[in-house]
């Protein structure tokens, strides 16, 4: 049996995606008493009579391992063996109906553990105490004398399995419960194999593109090449007799062709003659925008932080400085290039909409389905699938909206697939940014003032202009508005400068470009001061113990200052984002002709606590590779208003041959700190690499990607 025939999809009455296995999916809900059926203890937990425990996950699995780490948190409090645990997706429809019983289901901002942990601990601990109380009542003893572990409640040599207690436990309330202290953890902190990996290895995992429904047809789409443009008219005469052709759907900013099979739809839409109204973006180019963004650095921006030196104080400090240093940095637009192109399957019926897709935002998908179809959210069901990459892109529901519009026209199940070209050229991009730093030093070469001005395309302005009414997009000044280095006078200003391109959250958001600029300039300042990069930073971080500790561990683990071959050097960068600190040292080799090879990256991380060290380490390495793509090759260019790049031949990604040796170490602060792990591994990579390149070539890289630069040296 081949993979396509193996995959079968069905929809339960509750709207859940029911599979032949438990990943991903939504179980049947409801409570039963002594029925021999699974019992829902709370929205997060279902206990089967065979003692297996289904733990629901309200976040999206896109390779970051949350289908393992989040259930680990529940299982820890519940007191159940990990081999008894199954996992499935929580239901977005239920979340909307039941006053956000699962909280915010959007997966982004490295928030899954960082923000979701308390609710998961409470769910597990409450269920544990419910089970204990039922057992204690049966034994007619004090619940405080009973112990729950290994899927059993025990007292004086007696025990009840959870499956024997669940039905009664679901009916009682235990009030406030006690959450475990970290010292008592047995599962949290242990390297645990990811539950989704076997399914991905054997081919049974279902991604959005794998969904197959009876009577399903396919749609391919072509957007206006200039983003924001609209359809003027089209002539479909030439494709009416195209094999499998069903119909054309005009989406105003795009045209879709529906056919019996995907490739029939794609070749038909490629052949379709469309006249476009290209709008205000026609004639523009990234070359001109780069000039304009850099020129805007000369303007006075809006204050980015209330806790900073005034303009007059900053000017006075710079004028009084014994020496000054200025550097202008630039970062281009970037695409997300998820390995699985955007896709969505919908079935629009008279009073129900079903949506199958891999989305970071199942609630948003449900809501957009309701808005477009006119059907109440009560009857719109999003069946989330595994995501073949997300990186922020799949938190936007534009592709879901298009699929629903098409589904309303064809009146049968339809799967919309974006081609790779559409995915690259129409994807919502990481913003373009220009950043200027100016530093002043006294006669001892000690830093006395540091000012930065950033000019960035605003993400939030495209979502809700009201949010940026002050002239500041908080995502644009991450890592710039509040700089940890203890410099007497610090000032950050910002200018919003947008183009016709659409932007969106890209892995690590503003920190991706701002850390490159900030940590590269810190290296410039260290060179200007004649100081070792570690010593220079440590001298300015004496009041930041966590950052200092990470640097000290990193200096040891990276063997900083070791003897290296000609053309090879180390570079340092450190950055805090999403509640976690990541310091990196990159060992880089540059040939005399300018070819760059990142040979080794050593990372030291402080995220406070680790749920699953295995997936945490994987996320650091994943961030390094994603950041390496951006550093080496990443750039979206626009000519005559349209994006030039279209596929991996001209939007290159880092490949296996580019991968460095990676070592990840954890130096954890503990306490109340629970940082994110999905994104913080990315920001330090580019500056660490560029700082190493300077030590080899003497050339300071102030714009990305590296492919722009002649890095040859004599």
Supply database-style keywords:
714 residues, alpha+beta, Aldehyde Oxidoreductase, domain 4, seven-stranded mixed sheet, five-stranded mixed sheet, 29 strands
Structure description:
The chain is 28% helix and 23% strand. It has 714 residues and is α+β, with helices and mostly antiparallel strands. Strands 12-13-10-20-17-18-19 form a 7-stranded mixed β-sheet. α2 packs parallel to α4 (112-139), α4 (112-139) crosses α5 and α13 packs parallel to α17. The longest helix has 28 residues, at 112-139. The chain is globular, with a radius of gyration of 27 Å.
User: Between the first and last Cα atoms, what is the distance in angstroms?
Assistant: 60 Å
Low-confidence stretches: 1-34
Q: Count of DSSP helices? A: 17
CATH class of the largest domain: Alpha Beta
Q: How many β strands by DSSP?
A: 29
In one word, what is the shape?
Answer: globular
On the 0-100 scale, what is the average pLDDT? 94
The CATH superfamily title of the largest domain: Aldehyde oxidase/xanthine dehydrogenase, molybdopterin binding domain
- Can you give the helix content as a percent range? 25-40%
CATH architecture of the largest domain: 2-Layer Sandwich
**What value does the Rg take, in angstroms?**
27 Å
